[in-house]
Amino acid sequence: MFMKWKFFDKIPVEGGVSYQDLAASVGAQGEIVSRMGQMLVSTGTLLQPKPGSVAHSRLSLRYKTGNSNGSAFAMLYDDFQPVFAKLPGFFGKYGPNLPVGKTNIPITFASGADGKLTPWEVFAQQGTEHIEQFGLAMQAMTGYLWPHTGAYDFTWVGKYAATNPNRTLIIDVGGSFGHSLRANLVKYPNIPPGRCAVEDREEMIPSITKAHANDPVMENVQKVAADFHKEQPVKGALIYFIRRCLHDYDDNDCVNILKILADSLPEDEPQARVLINEHIMTDPPDREVAAIDIIMMTWASLERTVQQLEKLADRAGLVVIKVHRAGGSSLGVLECKKASRS
Question: From the CB of residue 223, how many other CB atoms can be counted at a distance below 10 Å?
């Protein structure tokens, strides 16, 4: 509730604020705010500089509006905690089997929408603010758990751009706000941003455009409305980069997504690639990947091994030519070319 009421925004970075002032800002009863606040103080999330007041700790700034780590916490609480709580009911109704399909699955069951809506349709019904929170949550923990850079070396793309002035260079497929593309454009400044594009669902484009308006790295990046289950709107690009999207879908959907990208690769450019950036399931499993795999189970999907991803690529008409890994990360990049290429 402190996040919903934006109290972490209202607590000054330096110094404290009284529970009464926080309560007055939302028209709440003072006692309910203080009782919630004392729980946060007891865990060290907030500090108590004097009786009846709170201040930020080293932990609490992440819960301010717009922070990706705070958004990830809110996503887990708002979107997935209710799903886990209702798993017994789901398995009671559908049997103790792996969820399959797009609508009769745990995440839609928890919303009372099983058999009616897909997960994305459930999210869309919750409004723009919720969608933006989800987009921010996807960027959380990029520094150590799923870094944007380090696995794949894009140096060659900048060199290619200098001698091939017309081709679109990188399409960030299903890229949300393009954080990964941005990180790589910063790391590889010879790649012209105006020859790259971020693609996402149509309802996301206004928010993405607004977010990029005052960003000198991203302002010239093309924003393209696209549904990656359907025809690719930008064909013939050098690289189609798809990051942490396939784990949302079952095998058949993934093959369709990858086949669309394979068919969009230019016939006249042997260097053209599809780059699949996903968590890699190992045996024994990495703790974080195993945890995310349980979340993906509620979507009737999974985190995959290299071998499972290679099979998907093969079915889609792609050949995995190399698997790139970043040290200390569970993420990998499968570099793929079209199967017909020599």
Answer: 19
